[in-house]
Each structure stands twice: as structure tokens, then as C-alpha cells.
Write a structure and sequence with these properties.
Blueprint (H helix, E strand, L loop, with lengths): L3 E7 L6 H9 L6 E7 L6 H12 L4 E6 L6 H11 L4 E4 L5 E2 L3 H12 L3 E3 L2 E5 L2 E5 L33 E4 H5 L14 H11 L3 E3 L5 E5 L15 H14 L4 H21 L6 H17 L2 H10 L2 H20 L1
Parallel strand pairs: 1-2, 1-4, 2-3, 6-10, 7-11
Antiparallel strand pairs: 4-9, 5-11, 6-9, 7-8
Helix pairs in contact: 1-2, 6-7, 7-8, 8-9, 8-10, 8-11, 9-11, 10-11
């Protein structure tokens, strides 16, 4: 069994894939496994990956899988999970990269702590700029209950730091069915995943390890494209709320899920001009329907405590629902 499997999905990233693959080579060990998944790219990415898989096999174990049709990031990661055989697992996106020696430090950290998973900091790379982003949890190198790190409601917590590649995960979580992503989600795929991880894993720790470079502002990234795929965040957060409502601690955790959902809706409404007109209209209607589906008591509390700018946008949607029902 390899010590670590690194799952790396690629889709139309011929410009960035060489940097990603070079960083893997600088981290290679004979007991590391690189699982490269091409999500049916239409550019030169597959050719780059075929060459890299052959070259990397000299220094690490390599699995290369190519999808017959594009399925999105969540589906590509699931393909990688199913193909992986490592004792520990981590992720890397096909347009990001890691510092030399980072993977070895990652394995040492999770082995030393003996927990289900660890979370790490990361560096955001925008053009030539670099910004360090810390995992939002003050206690470091201490094993804790991940369920307790979901709260408090009104602060940024571990479930808001939803980057799957910012950490490492013991294989027992995969065997328990905790690590798979919701099939077909085109955006916000990390959100149901991080909530499930924190509800169902038994132990975790945050470590001050810096080595993942997250590339922002990539033109092909969904965060830069205002098309209908962005609206998958509605399906993602519907899942978060539904699963949290069924949790044994729903009375404590549900307000956090609702508040986060509301914050994301308000964020997208504030940037509605980036969407195509038809998609913007769909965003408004789907957001209004989402607000109607939320637990209304929890929603009322959230709107009462949220800042005026965001709460006013959401109250307008809520009034639109009420007015439409009255007219009907």
C-alpha cells in the first residue's frame, strides 16, 4: 500500500498543468501514488498527462485515468478516490502547485497526530501576488472533535474553509464513505463535503503547514464565468441544510448552515451583473425558492443578526415570495 495518494483532476489546463506536474515530481517518493484524472479535456492536457505519467513512474507510483465525457470536478475527484490505494489521501487541482517537500511534511504531520484528518494553511496566487490564508481555527497541532469546530454560528469556522486540497485524510474515512463528493456538482462541491467531514469524522487537527499554492483568477475557472453551472451552489447548500437538519445536533448546527447559505446567496446577488441575463433571472428565482425551503425560524434569526447590506437583499427576496403567494 502506498503511504499517500495524491488525487489531481485536470480539465483544459494545458497552460498550468506542467507547473502542477513539476511540483509533484519535486515531492515524489517511491511510496507516494499520484492519481491523475483527465476530465475529458479538449486541449493538449491529455497529451501532457500521458507524457508526465510515464516520466513520473520512475520516481513514484502513478495512475492515469481519462473520462470519456466531462463530469465536473466533484466527479473527477470521485474517480481519483476510487482509483487510489494509499493509506492517506490528499487532493491537488490541476492548475495549482505545491512546494518541494510539502507532501512529506503533510504525511509526517498526520502520522504524528494520529487523527482522521488534518487541515493546513495555503498561499493564494493571483498573477504575481502571493497572500497567505490561514485555516480559521486558532488551536494548532492539537487533536480535537471536528463536530465542535463547526460553531460558533456568527464566525468563520472550519466548515467555511472548504478547500479539499488543504489537508490530508486517513483512508478509514474513505472506507466509511465520508470522502466522496456529490456526483455532478459543478461548483461549491467542497461545501457538502466539508460539512459531512466535520459531522462524521471523529478527530482532526489544524497544523501550521504552508505548501499549497492556489491559483486565483484563472480565466477558465467557474468562479470567473457567469454561466448556469455557477448555480449548482443552490443544490450544494440545499444538501448541507437537509443533511444538517437530520443530524442529532440539528438544533445547534442548523443555524450555522442556514447563515452560511444566506451569506452565499447574498454574495452571488451582489455580483449578479457578471451573469448572463437569463442566468441572472434564474439566480433570483432559484434563490427565492431556496429561501422558501429554509427552516423559517432559523432564517428569521439569521436575518435579524446579519449585516444590513446582505439581510436587505435576502428580505427583498423573502417579501417577493410572500407577495406572490398573496397574489395567488
Amino acid at each position: 500500500m502506498p503511504k499517500l495518494s495524491v488525487i489531481v483532476p485536470f480539465y483544459n489546463v494545458q497552460q498550468y498543468a506542467p507547473d502542477t506536474l513539476r511540483s509533484l515530481r519535486l515531492n515524489a517518493r517511491e511510496d507516494f501514488e499520484f492519481v491523475l484524472v483527465d476530465d475529458h479535456s479538449k486541449d493538449e492536457t491529455p497529451a501532457i498527462l500521458e507524457r508526465a505519467a510515464e516520466e513520473l513512474s520512475d520516481v513514484a507510483q502513478v495512475r492515469y485515468v481519462r473520462h470519456e465525457k466531462n463530469g465536473g470536478l466533484a466527479t473527477a475527484r470521485n474517480t481519483g478516490l476510487d482509483a487510489s490505494t494509499g493509506e492517506y489521501l490528499t487532493f491537488l487541482d490541476g492548475d495549482d502547485w505545491i512546494a518541494p517537500g510539502y507532501l512529506g511534511e503533510l504525511v509526517s504531520a498526520i502520522e504524528g497526530l494520529g487523527c482522521d484528518f488534518i487541515r493546513t494553511d495555503h498561499v493564494q496566487a493571483t498573477n504575481r501576488g502571493r497572500t497567505v490564508h490561514r485555516a480559521p481555527h486558532g488551536r494548532r497541532n492539537e487533536v480535537m472533535n471536528p463536530r465542535e469546530a463547526i460553531l460558533p454560528v456568527d464566525r468563520t469556522t472550519s466548515v467555511d474553509y472548504a478547500y479539499a486540497w488543504a489537508g490530508a485524510y486517513h483512508r478509514r474515512l474513505l472506507d466509511k464513505g465520508v470522502l466522496h463528493f456529490t456526483h455532478g456538482l459543478r461548483t461549491a462541491e467542497d461545501r457538502p463535503w466539508i460539512w459531512k467531514l466535520h459531522r462524521e469524522a471523529e478527530s482532526f487537527a489544524v497544523v501550521g503547514l504552508l505548501g499549497v499554492f492556489y491559483r486565483r483568477g484563472v480565466a477558465s475557472s467557474l468562479t470567473q464565468i457567469g454561466d448556469v453551472r455557477q448555480l449548482d451552489f443552490i443544490r450544494a447548500f440545499d444538501q448541507v441544510v437537509e443533511e444538517t437538519a437530520a443530524d442529532r445536533d440539528a438544533d445547534r448546527l442548523l443555524p450555522k448552515a442556514v447563515r452560511t447559505y444566506c451569506a452565499i446567496i447574498a454574495h452571488h446577488l451582489a455580483e449578479i451583473d457578471k451573469f448572463e441575463p437569463a442566468v441572472a433571472k434564474q439566480l433570483r428565482s432559484m434563490s427565492a425558492a431556496a429561501i422558501k425551503r429554509m427552516p423559517q425560524d432559523a432564517l428569521g434569526d439569521v436575518l435579524d443578526t446579519m449585516d444590513l447590506s446582505r439581510s436587505s437583499k435576502l428580505r427583498r427576496l423573502r417579501r417577493r415570495i410572500t407577495t406572490a403567494k398573496a397574489a395567488a
